[in-house]
Design a protein that fits this description.
Organism: Candidatus Daviesbacteria bacterium RIFCSPHIGHO2_02_FULL_39_12
Oligomer: single chain
Largest sheet: 3 strands, antiparallel
Radius of gyration: 18 Å
Number of strands: 3
Order of helices and strands: HEEEH
Number of helices: 2
Distance between the termini: 24 Å
Strand content: 15-25%
GO molecular function: DNA binding
Pfam families: YbaB_DNA_bd
Protein name: Nucleoid-associated protein
Length: 92
Amino acid sequence: MGFMDNIKQLGDLKKMRDQAMEVQKKLAGIKITVEHRGVTVVMTADQKVASISGEADFEKITEAVNEALKQSQKVAADEMKGMMGGLGIPGM
């Protein structure tokens, strides 16, 4: 592997990093709202709870947060899949 190959790899890594940062910004801007058993949870797709409202029952809040996490993970996976497909990485 020559010097130019190393330079190209560094450029590819920078491009991947930049794309990952763009996806992260996009995920932070996507809001997911889950209403579950009287509790409303708003979470960003980068899995940060923005708000919780409704009944103050710990079990119901836990279930609602877990459902919001599940949905945010699906959105994040879909966004990452789109990014990886654009990179032309074999096996992705």
